[in-house]
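FIELD: query
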Amino acid sequence: MKKLILSLGLASLALSVSAQGIKASAPGYAWDEFNSKAEFAEAGSTYGIFFYKDSLNTAATYTKNKIDYTNGKISIVKTRTGNGLLSYTLSTPYNAFIPTGFSFGKGNTIDISSSKTVSLKLTNQSDSSLYFRVALKDINGNMIDSKGTEAHRSGNWYMDELGFIVSPTNDFSYNRGIEVAAGVKGAVTGAKVSDSVFVTVNFAGGYATNYSTHVADSVSFDFTKVSEVQITVLNPNQVSTDGYNRKDLNDISYALSFVGIGDISALVAGIENVNSSSSEETVSAYDMLGNFVGTGKIKELGLESGKVYIVKSSSQTRKIVMAK
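FIELD: result
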């Protein structure tokens, strides 16, 4: 990746991976590192990675889905300068769920049935914690944002939303429901990486809903035709008298430095399979976001099986995947 090559001082070497791209057919993927000021548009096609337009509404009251929202300031503004960040400033009123996110072009879909995952690297630039809820939309308008149990879906379905909380110091924690619901916690994994958080959300086994018809559980989600990724930023604090309703957000800010959906490892050509238990080779290892993992013998670095790394030895730099 361009960022990785610059950070390692390896510009003269042959290792180079684009900073954004898309592949619609299985195993499908899309990713963006925001190193270009322009959104990604694939040459010769209508495909690309197109982020939602800004949302502005300063009315004291506004109506959505026949619900009146008071103190209705809505302001979602993104900034993209090509510096490796997609920055957002955001204000939303009490009880408003207004997503940000991206699509792949009008009518376009990608097949992520082999992985069913979304990965994000983000930084909370605010003075308070933020709750991020991640969802997918398919060609039929069905949404999936929960890996709940039948019991929760028939009642407090929101407790199993695929969400996570990022503190002002960029520490990761689970959404309340993801943390306490048996068998659900593994659907979201995350960790602090320098001054950011890297999170992977796995939608396998989730329950789908069609919010247009308000039909839940009886609809199925089509992972072979995913049309949108939605990221809804909320106040982690609820209004105690109103149950699930969320408090407002006022002029908060955060930045994405990486988004990826689907089989991200497939974007790297010429990957070498390595047996982590027997390799005596000494290398410096980095993940695909350019973060330093460690220096030492490959078998002693604790590299995860099935994950792609970039390794630098005394003689070469190459991409490897740890054998499962």
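FIELD: remark
Residues 268-322 form one domain.
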